[in-house]
Amino acid sequence: MRRTDREITSFPELIRIIQQCDVCRLALYDTPYPYILPLNFGMATEGETVTLYFHGATMGKKYDLIAQNPNASFEMDCHHQLIVDKDACKCAMAYESVIGQGALSLVSGEEKWFGLRTLMRQYHSAEDFTFPQNIVEKTTVFKLTVISMTGKRRSVT
Q1: Average pLDDT, the chain
Q2: What angle do CA 80, 148, 68 make, to 5 degrees?
Q3: Nearest of 57, 59, 41 to residue 139 by alpha carbon
């Protein structure tokens, strides 16, 4: 990272930023261009291992790409604030972001239910959720097991 003064390497700080984000962008391998999609997500941690859970319909391009190559990159960001200067060339943006890489896989059974509950906890304060069985059957849950991540911050000051 060129701007090491803005780099975030503290695991607890990276987790704090992820918890405050509402969208995770996945970049999947496709040719001739990467395929990027914004997704709602949930995060689970065990020690310093991070797992991101996602959901979607039962078929689609993302599943075809995951089957071909499960490696993916992700990005999420929050706390955007324009930093205005009288000189337009000196304007900037405050933010916090996390990027990383990992391997994607589909989940089923108990882990599918865990993934759905984890997703809901990212956006809702309730501890337990009831999911109609017919909706769960029409939903695919997949996860990204993070192998590396880093963060970056630009403050307003």
Answers
A1: 89
A2: 100
A3: 57
- Decide if pLDDT at 128 tops 80: no
Q: Which helix (H) or strand (E) holds 140?
A: strand 140-154
Section 22-47 average pLDDT: 97
Per-residue model confidence (pLDDT) at position 88:
65
Cβ neighbour number for residue 54 with a 10 Å cutoff:
22
So what's the pLDDT on residue 102? 98
Query: Distance between CA 104 and CA 138 in Å, rounded?
Result: 20
User: Which of 138, 74, 136 has its CA nearest to residue 104?
Assistant: 74
**H and E: helices and strands count for the chain:** 4, 8
Give the closest residue to 66 by CA, choosing from 103, 94, 95, 93: 103
Q: How far apart are CA 90 and CA 106, in angstroms?
A: 45
* More confidently predicted of 60 and 82: 60
Contacts for 122 with CB less than 8 Å, ≥ 6 apart: 19, 22, 40, 41, 42, 43
**CA dist 90 → 3, 7, 62, 154 (Å):** 17, 21, 39, 14
